[in-house]
Amino acid sequence: MALIPGFEYDIFISYAHLDNATLTGQADGWIKQFHENLNLMLAKRFGRMGMVKIWWDSKKLDGSVLFDKSIEDGINKSAIMICLNSSSYEQSDYCKQELSQFYNKAKGDKHGLQIGDRSRIIHVLLNNIPHTQWPKELSGTSGFPFHDARDQDNYGDTHDTVSHEFKLQMRNLRDAIWSLLTSFSESQGLNDSLDALKSNEEDDAFTIYFGEVPDTLRSPRKRIIKELEKKGFKIIAGVPPPDEQKAHEEATIKALHKSQLAIHLLDQYTGREIVGDSDHWYPQKQTELALNTAVAQMIWIPAEVDYDDIEEEEYKLFLQKIEDGTYNSKKYEFIRGIKSALAQEIVLFAEQLKNEQHKKVAEQGQLSVLLDTHFSDQFYAFGLGKTLDENNIQPFINPQEDDPRKNINLLGERMSQVQKLIFIYGNVSKEWVLERMNAALQLILTNNYPIEDFFIYMAPPHKEADDININQRLLKVNVINSSDTKTFDTDVIKRFLDDLKTEVE
Description:
The protein is α/β, with parallel strands linked by helices. The chain has 3 domains: 9-197, Rossmann fold; 201-360, 3-Layer(aba) Sandwich (Rossmann fold); 366-501, 3-Layer(aba) Sandwich (Rossmann fold). The chain is built from 16 helices and 19 strands. Helix 1 packs across helix 5 (164-187) and helix 14 crosses helix 15. The protein is globular.
């Protein structure tokens, strides 16, 4: 499933076979390296592997072979095309056929060739091809130059994939693709879904609805919300606005449906009356509405509340039924407590519920893991991530830093979403891996994250089986040695997948 609804792939890469040919001493061709860099950079931009689906023909056929049906399907099922224009591309009838087919397909579908002011064909120049020689389908595009030509008369050579110039243009290309995908989604009225993708942290945030309170509890409510937000929870503050009865109920129910937990702080005072319904009050009504949903709920009242002091008979009866559990059949957390312990009680309950829900999702759905890797091993980690994704395991991406203590908070946010944590030990030092693992352990102990076990995945270059020593006993640590081959060993991967899925299925 592509990011853009209605398509199987987000991007189709069109290129000439000759441009992917390897030189002496090269393991991979330029196009393959381009694809891997693009895939990785888009994965980082979206926060997880496989979010943007890219189609490319790794066994590019030459011009003597009939137009392949799988390629035709790839074109027809793709939202945008990246055209890698070069002298070889200009000479290939096969490439021209790909470009023409996408052009005609896009021109004729409901979206059109342009999304806003952006073309659905992204023009990448591997050589300095004169404008007069561009295919008509590329007219009106400016293109992204991936060559070193300094003037219009210079042919130019394609940037090496390890060069600074290549990396700079890849960032420009990534940002352009992001903007195009954003515009594409907006054109289909999918603002909500794309906004959720703009921040991986928000995308998976545990959401708490915090109900309206009487004035006596407004200050503690404000303080607790700030503390929950610091812990990474997303807060929907109680409604109003709007104040009017019907609008208030509709807005409250909508907010509750977006939440995993509803919190209601009540005391002997009713709080504000609902506009147009003087017999009911906002705190009570919001509590009642939440009680009629499946959302987990916590209801708190001060320990010192005496029902005999409550003047409003209906409100008194409501609180009594809430406390003795006779209001309705829904299960909820009820606490009579003191204000000084209120914040701690709510945070602990929310953390416990969040972890329980993560475990429940893991048991019922797809196993999710976090690949923790230094940037020196990022391409190996990317390949491993693809393998995991192909085996129905969702890989998340971590921030990559030289300092293993940097971005620990973000690491913690992502640890709350997964069951397994995998440290990639390849080109990076063993000290970096051990320090990173110790930092993760501290986060688990502090926040009770639902991590079941650790994996240290030894990637190339060669390492001995006992190269890394683990001295902690708090969590199971599995060591996988796949350091003797640059390709993924089938037997090693099978054992690794079996170990990952242990205690999950």
